[in-house]
Amino acid sequence: MLKRKKTREVKIGRVGIGGNNPIRVQSMTNTDTRDVAATVAQIKSLEDVGCELVRLAVLDQDAAKAISKIKAKISIPVIADIHFDHRLALICLEEGIDGLRINPGNIGSEDKIDKVVEKAKNLGVPIRIGVNGGSLEKDLLLKYGEVTPEAMVESALRHVKILEERQFWDIKISLKCSSVLKTIAAYQLLSSKVNYPLHIGITEAGTFWRGTVKSAVGLGILLFQGIGDTLRVSLTADPVQEVQVAWEILRSLQIRQRGPEIISCPTCGRTEIDLIQLANKVERALQNRSEVFSVAVMGCVVNGPGEAKDADIGLAGGRDCGVIFVKGKIKRKVRGEKNLLPALLKEIELFLQNKNHSKRLKTASNKNYCPEQDLRK
Length: 377
Ligand code: SF4
Known about the structure:
By secondary structure, the protein is of the alpha/beta class. It has helices at residues 36-48, 61-65, 67-71, 86-94, 110-123, 138-144, 149-164, 180-191, 208-224, 239-252, 275-285, 304-307, 340-364, 371-376, and strands at residues 10-12, 15-17, 24-28, 53-57, 78-81, 99-101, 127-132, 171-176, 199-200, 230-231, 261-264, 294-298, 313-318, 321-326, 329-335.
């Protein structure tokens, strides 16, 4: 179990971040926020794959005024991403926003900052300070000569000071840049200086596969060091994939689990079925499942069940056939390559039904068990 640095807790709506809360998975919509139907549809897709918080870009007053309509139709907390314009922040707060991402040092005059901070404080809405390597203050670039971890941290601490001077402590901080090494160093430095919860991410990480690798390396190292209270994987891809990658990073480090783990062999000269296609189909078929279990998709009967004996359930292919195995023991044979996927999915359903049944029996044997409560779940 990795040891995590203890940070202050902030609440974005009903979702706690930092403190003893789990590391939260979040993403950002890429719809026009003014288009309520499209934004709600995307948020629901994100919720389905385990997104716990969502950020929306608020570019104008119409987008800010759409917040309450969007919130009425979804169940996860919403954070408004605002650059510079304090009036948009005030409207979002009136519309019931759960969190703001705005840098107080970029708002402008003191009275504008006061208005936003006062209103956020009265409504209990946290503010995320988000420093991005690409938009560092000019004087810091001059001082450090380029974007450095020290420059990013100094920028973040300036914004923190503005909030602290107004007795505002519900702060979250992110320090993002597209360099993995600089981002890691920046978060390490910041983590040694503050105990506010940290939102971690590698920004502009790239397309699906490159961005996934960069995010997994950068965020994986930070999480391994106990740094990070919420993560957003930034990909030039469908935000749904950002959430899926984030969960996979957390699973890989055994921090949190959601949905099935899919184990599949790399294939070799013994493979006699189209295993690559089959493994991808299994992954797609199970992508919205939230139950925690493991499925193996292996290329041969001789080694497959043994190599994947820790998987809850699996399939090993042969020539135009396959075997289904449970915990490494063969359960049944399936003839015809086209029948492998449906047979495996059917067995997974049975496995999960049995698992739920045993769980209910176990709970029922507990003297404090309340069947009505179980039915309501
Ligand atoms: Fe090769 Fe079989 Fe191992 Fe897959 S499970 S890599 S097919 S030996």
